[in-house]
């Protein structure tokens, strides 16, 4: 296990179910199991990447950690404090240490507010600054993210997508947080701008000692910025490992299918490379399959996969996987019969 003194965030068996109502009186007839019992830790100063298909529960996980969605079950410890047990006022006092960068830089900024008001609003809400001190802090934050302080009088519609995301980053940094959830911060940006934003986040992490939960679809970008990577599928974590271990020797079939979809920069290898392509669509989180939730799409599923939920366990030091077929030698020896990952 990780040294507890070096752990900033610890998530234990986190669940978030959204009720499904129906009938004349709106009775609860079921639940969307967006996050279904996940456990992991984030160490101080590291970036944990969280990847998976759309609808697998990545964003809900980030919001549940920050208590923007109150979890259905489980615990979230931040600096040793269980956030799920705090009252609204106690949680409000913890908010400055935990912030979020939202996915859509167009929808997450109030079009009626100037940049200065947007970036300085957290400081006003928490009664930390006002007047000239507030203006100086906003100017400092804009410089920190690579924007001209003179822009504080402008409005969001006057900026490009990349500039808007920088404004969102400046707002997240205004209260000097130690932990930031980056909820797909580059997915709405042009490819040419994505690298700039990711490099900015890395520079800020080095300067300010920040800890990130980085949620994204782009595996190559996640590998670039993350120290460790967790792979989610249908509300559960399938695999978690160091970024190099995950890419060099993935143990879960789902992880291997995702990695096989990443194009290689060498045309000759790309032309001859075989793909581990999944068939069918992910099951509904309102009615997940019994056993391993991935067995309906896994070409290697056996009877055990259809009936028993795989234990999420540590196969190697720091390498966790939820698969019946994985052992210390790894399941890749079986998977390579489907796709030669070494190509």
Describe the model.
With 343 residues, this protein is of the alpha/beta class. It is 31% helix and 23% strand. It has twelve helices and twelve strands. It has helices at residues 58-65, 88-94, 115-125, 131-144, 161-173, 191-208, 219-225, 243-248, 253-260, 267-272, 303-307, 332-335; strands at residues 7-22, 27-43, 47-51, 73-78, 81-82, 98-101, 179-183, 211-215, 228-233, 236-242, 313-316, 319-321. An eight-stranded mixed beta sheet has the order 6-7-8-3-9-10-12-11, sandwiched between helices. Strand 4 and strand 5 form a beta hairpin. The longest helix has 18 residues, at 191-208. It is globular and about 70 Å long. It starts with 6 loop residues before the first strand and ends in an 8-residue tail after the last helix. 37% of the residues are buried. Mean pLDDT is 89; it is low at 332-343.
Fold blueprint:
Layout: E1 7-22, E2 27-43, E3 47-51, H1 58-65, E4 73-78, E5 81-82, H2 88-94, E6 98-101, H3 115-125, H4 131-144, H5 161-173, E7 179-183, H6 191-208, E8 211-215, H7 219-225, E9 228-233, E10 236-242, H8 243-248, H9 253-260, H10 267-272, H11 303-307, E11 313-316, E12 319-321, H12 332-335
Parallel strand pairs: 3-8, 3-9, 6-7, 7-8
Antiparallel strand pairs: 1-2, 1-4, 4-5, 9-10, 10-12, 11-12
Q: What is the tally of beta strands?
A: 12
* Low-confidence runs of at least 5 consecutive residues: 332-343
Distance between the termini: 34 Å
Strand content: 15-25%
Question: Into which percent range does the helicity of residues fall?
Answer: 25-40%
The total of helices stands at 12
